[in-house]
Design a protein that fits this description.
With 117 residues, the protein is mainly α. The protein is 62% helix and 0% strand. It has a domain at 52-116: Helix Hairpins. It is flat and about 80 Å long.
Length: 117
């Protein structure tokens, strides 16, 4: 019995590779030509895009402090919502955290400018 199993396995043809199966043409259907990329790199506009921090740089220190307080309260509430399983917009935590960091960065820039002057 053991000998029959060995011979049966040896007689089986090896499975076809995907490349061989893909190379066969279906009768009456031609293969679509492959899309070619142009070797030239796309030109990138050098115009400066306003960053999120630029919006905060235009505000005064008092306005930034108020905005920072508001965002820290929102962050606190989002943490509680996440802990209770009530948070629907999970990406909002990330956005708020980054806005807090931006505001703190702008406030530090303003402090340094004031100290140098």
């Amino acid at each position: 019995m053991a000998e029959k199993k060995k011979t049966a396995k040896a007689e089986k043809a090896p499975p076809k590779k995907k490349a061989q199966a893909a190379s066969k043409k279906v009768e009456g259907v031609e293969a679509a030509p492959k899309a070619t990329r142009s070797k030239a790199a796309p030109k990138v506009s050098k115009a400066r895009v306003a960053s999120a921090a630029d919006e905060f740089r235009s505000k005064s220190t008092d306005e930034l402090g108020d905005e920072l307080t508001r965002l820290k309260k929102e962050q606190f509430n989002l943490r509680f919502q996440r802990a209770n399983g009530q948070l629907e917009k999970t990406n909002r935590i990330r956005i708020v955290r980054r806005d807090i960091a931006r505001i703190q960065t702008v406030m530090n820039e303003q402090r340094r400018r004031a100290a140098q002057a």
